[in-house]
């Protein structure tokens, strides 16, 4: 495979561009479900934090309610002791009841202080709950809109991919089977770049456009030969001079 017509080089360069278009579209199509998955996960996370905030609010409300019941119990206890005060005759029993009433009143005060703190907590939790509910609603709308957009884009990409594959087949048909096989092999080995043009910088240094390694003097002579198929010694890619192909 020493000879390669310049028309074939041109066809290979075109084929490579078509292959890239196909890969690019296939990549875009593959990324759609990933992106939708990410959007759904972010939404579920937000919903989890909304549910956690709701749980906190309910827990605090239940706690406040139970403290209020405890207050009612203390009131009842105080009333009962006060009724008993009228019935006891002994001084010691009377004193003991007064002491019980004091203890109950003190306990009631403590619970009332706790309730005040809880009322603050319930207010804050209520604000957080409302805020997260609004955020979830907004995020759900955004999610639905974005998913719809992505699904529509995917349909367009799929149509474009079909067209790109047809164009790719058309380009491949212009190339001999042996060269095409070589191209496919190198492309698979070299991350999609099978054929690279040769670069020449201002100082006259000539290098492979695929791996940037300088070419040997013999290689430079080879690539200037008309219709010769040349490979880079370093990366094994097919290399060509723009001016010999397009010049
Ligand atoms: Zn190279």
Short summary:
The chain is mainly alpha-helical and 247 residues long. The chain is 76% helix and 6% strand. It contains 5 helices and 4 strands.
Question: Topology, please?
Answer:
Layout (H helix, E strand, L loop, with lengths): L5 H80 L5 H82 L4 H13 L5 E6 L5 E3 L8 H8 L5 E2 L6 E3 L1 H4 L2
Parallel strand pairs: 1-4
Antiparallel strand pairs: 1-2, 3-4
Helix pairs in contact: 1-2
Bound molecules: zinc ion.
**Strand and helix order:** HHHEEHEEH
Which blocks of ≥5 consecutive residues have pLDDT under 50? Answer: none
**Biggest β-sheet strands, sense, barrel:** 4 strands, mixed
Q: What's the overall geometry?
A: rod-shaped
The termini sit apart by 23 Å
Radius of gyration based on Cα positions: 41 Å
Proportion of strand residues: 5-15%
Helix fraction, binned, reads over 70%
Overall tally of structural domains? 2
The CATH architecture classification of the largest domain is: Orthogonal Bundle
């Amino acid at each position: 495979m020493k000879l390669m017509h310049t028309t074939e080089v041109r066809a290979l360069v075109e084929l490579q561009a078509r292959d890239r278009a196909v890969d690019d579209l296939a990549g875009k199509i593959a990324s759609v479900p990933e992106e939708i998955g990410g959007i759904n996960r972010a939404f579920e996370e937000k919903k989890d934090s909304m549910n956690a905030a709701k749980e906190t609010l309910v827990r605090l409300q239940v706690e406040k309610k139970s403290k209020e019941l405890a207050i009612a119990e203390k009131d009842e206890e105080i009333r009962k002791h006060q009724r008993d005060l009228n019935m006891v005759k002994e001084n010691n029993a009377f004193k003991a009841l007064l002491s019980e009433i004091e203890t109950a009143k003190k306990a009631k005060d403590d619970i009332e202080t706790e309730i005040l703190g809880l009322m603050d907590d319930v207010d804050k939790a209520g604000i957080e709950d409302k805020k997260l509910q609004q955020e979830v609603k907004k995020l759900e709308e955004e999610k639905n809109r974005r998913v719809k957009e992505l699904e529509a884009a995917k349909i367009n990409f799929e149509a474009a991919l079909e067209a790109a594959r047809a164009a790719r087949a058309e380009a491949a048909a212009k190339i001999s089977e042996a060269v095409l096989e070589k191209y496919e092999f190198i492309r698979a080995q070299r991350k999609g770049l099978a054929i690279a043009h040769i670069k020449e910088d201002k100082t006259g240094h000539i290098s492979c456009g695929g791996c940037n390694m300088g070419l040997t003097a013999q290689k430079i002579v080879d690539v200037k030969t008309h219709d010769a198929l040349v490979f880079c010694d370093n990366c094994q890619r097919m290399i060509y001079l723009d001016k010999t192909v397009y010049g």
